[in-house]
Amino acid sequence: MDILLRAVCYPNNMWEEAIKTFFKDGVQRFSEGQVEPFEDFLYNKIPLVLRSTAPIVVWHEQDDVTKKYKYEFRLSFDNVTYMKPRIQEATGRLKQMLPYEARVRNFTYAAQMFVDIKFTARSYSGAGLLDMVEHSKVFEGISIGKIPVMLGSSLCVLKDFPVPLSDLGECTGDPFGYFVVHGSERIILSQEKVADNRSMVFFNKKTSSKFSHSVEMKSLHESFTMPPKKVEIRIQAKFNGLGFPLTICIPRFKEDIPLMVFFRAIGILSDKEIYDLVDDTVDDYLAASFKEAADMNIFTQETAIEYLSHHLQYPSTNEDKHGHIRSLLLSEFLPHVNLAGETLTHPVVIARKILILSGMLKKLIQTATGKRKIDDRDSYPNKRVVTTGALLTHLFRQLFQKVCKDIRSKLVHEINNDNWKRSGKPLEALTLSNLYKILKVSSIEGKMKQALATGNFTVQGLGTSNSTALSNATKSGVSQVLNRMSYSATLSHVRRIQTPVEKSGKLLAPRKLHGTSWGFVCPVETPEGHSVGIVKTMSLMTTVSGHVPSLVVTSLLKALTSVRWVNSVSSTGEVAILLNGVIIAHTENPVEVHSALRKAKITCRIHPHISIAWQILNKQIMVETDAGRLVRPVFRVENGKLLPPPASSNWNDWIKTCVEYIDPAESEVVRIAMMPDEITSVHTHCEIHPQMILGHMASTIPLSDHNQSPRNTYQSAMGKQAMCLYATNYQKRLDKNAYILCSSQRPLVETKMTRILNMQNMPFGENAIVAIACYSGYNQEDSVILNRNSLKRGFMRGLYYSLYKDEEHRNVVSGREERFAKPRQEATRGFKNTSYHAIGENGIPIRNSIVQENDVLIGKVVNMRSDPHGFQFKDLSTTHKSGEPCRVDGIWQNKNSDGYPFVKVRVVSERVPQIGDKVSSRHGQKGTVGMILDESDMPFTSSGLRPDIIMNPHAVPSRMTIAQLLETMYGRVGTRKGTIGDGTPYSHLKMEELSKQMAELGLHPYGNEMMYNGMTGEMMEVEIFVGSTFYQRLKHMVIDKSHSRSRGPIVSLTRQPCEGRARDGGLRVGEMERDCMLTHGASIFTKERLMDVSDPFETGICRNCGSLAMINDKDAIYECRVCSSKVGIETKTIPYAVKLWLQELEAMHISPRMMFGKE
User: Fold this and answer.
1) Which of 238, 287, 651, 1107 sits at a 20 to 30 Å CA gap from 628?
2) Torsions phi, psi of 19, nearest 5?
3) 3-state secondary structure string, 822-844?
């Protein structure tokens, strides 16, 4: 089919070619933000953790004279290698593991990890134990556990496999980027956090606080070997005569330190130097702080360090306390100033730290005096996204530290055995035989699986390590079950970002759509309710930057003559150059420096994701190479024109010629035109297309720029609930619940992104003839009327798949042995009063057999050792729970990882739309089926066209879903021309042109038709708007929600019916329902609802004192334990919850009494 295109002002459809090239590899491009960080975790972060955590050192046999040790043993880890996932059968046979098999057999798709372990033994002898002899040996290829493998990564079997994905049991459109843990698909959600190495000023709103304003920075070294070190400067709220003094809070010190004392401790002694560094006209804060230091009589570095030594959080055991303080100031205070790969002298390190500290102080004073605004922690330049790789690194570091502790304690035990001393060879203290005794590798493997399976990324027994500066909210719910409700839901889940705040919290700021998120986060797709604004989705072309070593930037800057490197505190210049938050240099020629850096970036001499932002007002050039920045591509503009695209279809060539990646910090300092016809001489960039600000779900809504924004948000949620072909391998999948639309169709109006992402191959609805009219009164309040004959022809017909599974268990100790079999009534205890017709003699169901509610699906029995009735077995069969008849569609039998046989049975039922089912257009116009009319009763046009759906016209004006009206008109033009309409948003659709095309085709210019009443044959009084609209059938169906109960299970505590349809629970009558019944005066009905059909309870009540009394009708015992009366005890029926409440009050020393009314 041809595409009905609209004129767009891009030369040669440049934007479409750019997007096609970007998504050349299909939807796998969406999972790059998952796969690339995982690759970095495997090949960079794990070796880094092994090197930084080890070596494990053990000293042995201390000399009494020298107090030195005679032996030193070291254990280090190196050379990490991996083996692709494999299955070891119970027979011992090894074979390659496919993800499909991992899902079916409940395996974890994991790769074996091997390391080389180097064991070094040093012996000290001679006078003063100064003679040292060193021996070492290497244990190569030692397994230290398994690492779950992300599908689509280099360790995945599917990567570059010569066989098509469909032949391997996979969906051909699978985005990958998830894990398979115990047969379940799990995905790790990216988490937002505050950026490290950035200073931010905040105002303290608490009136009782000790400080009013504060500036803080979380300093994280580029090597990621240490947790972030927080530095905070505070303005004290207490006036000291000259002003409000300043204090600083740094790690390893138990309380705030006066700021001027700290300045003197790091080498700034003179007041003038501090004034010059801050360079601020307001000196009240500094004067107050100088007075505080003078009152303490601290004017030299030595006295300042002496003061600090008395305020350590943990007192030093080192005799040289001053040396200990100096080492802490180097390691704990702003450790990020020493960039990776740099070898700096001590004065340069101190100079960088002083410049950062003075910059923080200046920022704080300017904010407190109203010269600048308070920093916005929700601004995207101040945020970073913690990806899968960073989260797994955080988890692996904790686990490996715990393993190293265990290894060290066991190594000490092995060395203390002294068996190696007999041979005089210290290396024999560790051999291959006892190496596996001290390696507790199962903890890494087990905890990694547990974290992915539960979403809890904390490690017990290791304190509260925050090595990635994540909040407690981030450490739970990190991984989730991959959403397979629909294909769109899966793609959206891979691109999701979560803000780690409490979903029940009332803070509005984190939930609002921030202006700096433009182009990086979808402004439409977010859930409704308590998660609104907390859960977000990345825009179509957004990706997350990885870490780039800062050395590539410093080596480039060294070639520039205008750059003056910071080597002392007095190093100044016109513009400061900041690299990852560190002032490394100054320049008098910022134009040259900025141009050189940008030229290197656009020619790919440095990584294209590096951020270069020249903040002219702040007089600084900020260069950032850290991981976690959201970046997106835009077209480059030079001399008021777009640069021409390359001839090749390689995305890297586009980056080198006409495309540049920018992050939120750069977005604030560049000029970006929305469309090419808006470009002027001042613009530096142009959007690839305005549609690229949307996420995947929102980009499939045709003409969404003509809808009210909440409607697009509703569709973004409902589109993920639409029945569709959710995976091409659905017949091989074993999902717990799955919905398939039998006759899904390609929409007559679609966006360009729908085609580029091949969504037309996996559509999520059908093209329906829709009339917007009031008809028969059964389509009020968002209900719709359906054509019964359309349903008979298969319109919106679906299939519902559900899964049942069971496995055999054996207990050798108790002799309990389960097996699949068809129970025999005469030999089986607990034989079910239902039908066993659907299973064979082996207990396995017969394919294509029909099962009703409570029919047995899987037959299983367990042997009984002794039974008073002589039964040999007990029935443990699995029954069909649903109330609708189903057909046995598929049976899978195999053995799990423990070697036990299991069976999985998939049943399918047909779902024909019925009254109460939910349908929706792509514009948030959702509704339930209110009536199904025969085709003869439906209205018809003069040409005999009868609608499939009639929706109410009152749904349009207030909701302003104009896009649905335009889609309907576009659909009519497309059906006449045999073309697909282009519904790409922000493409300047003109209503006049569309009306003109309709008139040329002989249609009403605005899509109206005269229709006739199908019931009376009379012509309707008004024209009806009718045409083709794409409709979705949602998963919400009456058959899944209908519920009733007479008697059933109760809660043991309150003896009231339990809650929930799945547990056959009762229907809740709450306060508002009670108030309605009381308003109507229906007292008997109220009593029936609240007690008679809930928790009636007969108890004795004493007439004398009104207390609960003890009654026993069988033995004629009636007694009140309170007043010891045995007469006047009456039996009354009260709710059991009331009886429980009375007893709970008595436990609180409140003694309620029940009074009897007059007879």
Assistant:
1) 651
2) -70, -40
3) CCCHHHEECCCCCCCCCECCCCC
* Lookup: tokens for 250: 């740094």
CB 395 within 8 A of CB 457: yes
Residue pair 351/567 in contact by the 8 Å Cβ criterion? yes
Cα 788 to Cα 188: distance, rounded to the nearest angstrom? 45
CA pair distance 125, 131, nearest whole angstrom: 5
Looking at the whole model, is its pTM more than 0.85?
yes
Which helix (DSSP H) or strand (DSSP E) does residue 537 occupy?
A: strand 535-537
* Integer Cα distance of 1117 and 1108 in angstroms: 14
Chain-centroid distance, C-alpha 952 = 38
Question: CA-CA distance, 676 to 10, in Å (whole number)?
Answer: 6
Q: Helix 346-368 to helix 284-295 angle, to the nearest 10 degrees?
A: 120
Strand segments, DSSP code E, in 958-1107 are 979-982, 1008-1009, 1011-1012, 1024-1033, 1096-1102
H/E segment holding residue 306:
helix 301-309
Backbone φ and ψ of 830, nearest 5°:
75, 25
Three-state DSSP at 86 gives: strand
Round to whole Å and give the CA distance between 261 and 297. 10
Q: Which contiguous run of DSSP H or E holds residue 602?
A: helix 590-602
Determine whether 933 is exposed, middle or buried from the number of CB atoms within 10 Å of its CB (0-12, 13-18, 19+). buried
In order of start, what are the domains of the chain with their CATH numbers? 54-188+387-477 (no CATH), 200-382 (3.90.1110.10), 546-693 (3.90.1070.20), 701-705+717-797+914-1033 (2.40.270.10), 799-911 (2.40.50.150)
Catalytic residues: 782
| Cβ pair 469, 449 in contact under 8 A | no
Tokens coding 380: 């995207």
Other residues' Cβ atoms within 10 Å of the Cβ of residue 284:
13
Summary count for the chain: helices (H), strands (E) = 27, 57
End-to-end CA distance of the chain: 87
For residues 844 and 902, give the distance between their C-alpha atoms in angstroms, rounded to a whole number: 10
Work out whether strand 979-982 and strand 2-4 pair parallel, antiparallel, or are unpaired. Answer: parallel
CB 611 within 8 A of CB 367: no
Q: Which residues contact 315 (CB under 8 A, 6 or more apart)?
A: none
Consecutive sets of 10 residues in the chain, 1159 residues long: mean pLDDT of each?
46 84 90 94 93 86 79 90 90 88 94 93 81 87 93 93 90 94 95 93 82 91 85 85 85 88 87 77 73 86 89 76 86 90 88 92 89 92 94 91 89 82 79 84 87 83 45 67 95 94 85 95 94 95 94 92 87 87 93 95 94 94 95 95 91 94 96 93 95 95 95 96 94 94 94 89 94 94 96 96 92 83 89 92 94 93 82 90 92 87 95 96 96 97 95 95 95 92 90 91 93 95 96 95 90 94 90 95 94 93 91 86 89 94 95 83
Is the Cβ–Cβ distance between 52 and 221 less than 8 Å?
A: no
CA 335 vs. chain centroid, Å, equals: 30
Q: Which of 815, 588, 537 is nearest to 695 (CA)?
A: 537
Contact 585, 564 (CB under 8 A): yes
What are the helix (H) ranges across 99-221? 99-104
* 976 φ, ψ (degrees, to nearest 5): -75, -40
Q: Classify residue 503 by burial, with Cβ atoms within 10 Å: 0-12, 13-18, 19+.
A: middle
Count Cβ neighbours within 10 Å for each residue of 847-878 and write b for 16 or more, e otherwise.
eebebeeebbbbbbbbebeeeeeebebbbbbb
Tokens describing residue 476: 């739970």
Q: How far is the C-alpha of 846 from the C-alpha of 833, rounded, in Å?
A: 20
Structure tokens at 78: 């190196």
> E strands along 986-1087, which residues?
1008-1009, 1011-1012, 1024-1033
Residue 787 and residue 933 in contact, taking contact as beta carbons nearer than 8 Å: yes
